[in-house]
Amino acid sequence: METYKLNGTFFYCPVDLTLSVIGGRWQGLIIWNLRDEPKRFNELKKILVVINDKMLSQTLKTLVEQGVVSRMDYKSTPPKVEYALTETGKALLSIFKQMEIWGKTINNQQLQMAE
């Protein structure tokens, strides 16, 4: 049986490994919202209205550790830190595009059924 490893954790299925990266409440939304350009912490917080600072910080840290997001510290005053997708993170965008299409399709079907 083939195994897959990410940050010291072993997986026995590549789908399980992928879901461990994008499957939580916030991981996927952060990745999706970084798709066009780097963003600062407070920009992400404004987009993800109900996330608290601790959860956003923890999730960003995890995504950085997984190599999906990069953290760029500009060492300036006032401090400026931006988060961006790495090449690994960008490779996930085709999956997210398909999820967007699926979500819109399901939504439209539900609207038609309600009429």
Overview in brief:
With 115 residues, the protein is of the alpha+beta class. It contains 6 helices and 5 strands, in the order ββααβααββαα.
What does this entry look like structurally?
With 115 residues, this protein is α+β, with helices and mostly antiparallel strands. The protein has one domain: Winged helix-like DNA-binding domain superfamily/Winged helix DNA-binding domain (Arc Repressor Mutant, subunit A, Orthogonal Bundle). Helix content is 55%, strand content 16%. The chain is built from 6 helices and 5 strands. It has helices at 14-22, 27-33, 41-47, 53-65, 87-91, 93-114, and strands spanning 4-6, 9-11, 39-40, 69-73, 81-85. It has a 3-stranded antiparallel β-sheet with strand order 3-5-4. Strand 4 (69-73) and strand 5 form a beta hairpin. The longest helix is centred in the last third of the chain and has 22 residues, at 93-114. It is globular, with a radius of gyration of 16 Å.
Keywords summarizing the entry:
16% strand; two-stranded antiparallel ribbon; Arc Repressor Mutant, subunit A; 6 helices; 115 residues; single chain; alpha+beta; 55% helix
Radius of gyration, in angstroms, nearest whole number: 16 Å
Q: Label the CATH architecture.
A: Orthogonal Bundle
What is the residue-averaged pLDDT? 93
Strand content: 15-25%
Helix content: 40-55%
Broad structural category: alpha+beta
SSE layout and pairing:
Blueprint: E1 4-6, E2 9-11, H1 14-22, H2 27-33, E3 39-40, H3 41-47, H4 53-65, E4 69-73, E5 81-85, H5 87-91, H6 93-114
Antiparallel strand pairs: 1-2, 3-5, 4-5
